[in-house]
Amino acid sequence: MNPAVVSKPRSQLGRVERKRAREAFERFLERERVLNGYPEFWVARSRNGRWRFADTDLSIRFETLIAKAGKLAGCPKDKNSAFFWLDLVKTFVTACNLRAPDRDFYWYGQSGNGMLRFPVDASIEYLRSFETKSTCRYRANVERLNQELKKRGWNIHDVERQVGQDWNGPNHKTVQKILNGKLVTEETAERTVKALNQAPGFPKLSRKDIFVG
Asked: For position 19, what pLDDT does the model report?
């Protein structure tokens, strides 16, 4: 894929279908909140590409929902449509380093195997991305970012350590991806600049000083 292209997994869902699918996930989430508070559950992916669901009523209802979404998204007939959907969502949240409602990452693990947390919220994020363009579309001026880090005597871990009233610095792995020229979301770009501005004695930076998107 051309790195200049927005990093978003392919799906055959049209605009109307995406809206209906998002609304279905939102209804599911709202119903579970009413019945169970805010249940956190996860699905795990093994190296062979198979996803494992917890043996609970909630997970069974979720698997039924994503199986329908996977078919709408163009799952091949010889593939598991629930697995197909989860692979789409996993690709999206890992490409954009998105955080779950508890402000930790949605995906835990390596590229092939690991755990997807808050999968209903992650599915909604994926579907909303087509509507809001909250996708990975910002790329850093790496030379300028390296200069700003050098001025402060910082490394990638120093960026991660910065904390504000309602935000925190991006994970050091995310910062390294930015330095490698990878695309990130607007939120990640904003948090990176906010972290740099925590250092006293330096002119305040804007997102446009560091990122292009």
From this structure: 84
**Amino acid identity, residue 66?**
I
pLDDT for residue 213 is more than 70: no
CA dihedral 53, 66, 133, 38 (to 10 degrees): -60
Helix (H, G, I), strand (E, B), or coil: what is residue 115? strand
Q: Helix, strand, or coil here: 18? A: helix
Residue 105 sits at φ, ψ, to 5 deg, of -75, 145
Beta-carbon contacts of 121 under 8 Å, excluding residues fewer than 6 positions away, are: 29, 100, 101, 106
C-alpha span between 2 and 194 (Å, rounded): 29
Map tokens 């579970």 to a residue.
32
**DSSP reduced 3-state for 134:** coil
Mean pLDDT, to the nearest integer, of 112-126?
Answer: 91
pTM for the model stands at: 0.61
- 46 phi, psi to nearest 5 deg: -95, 170
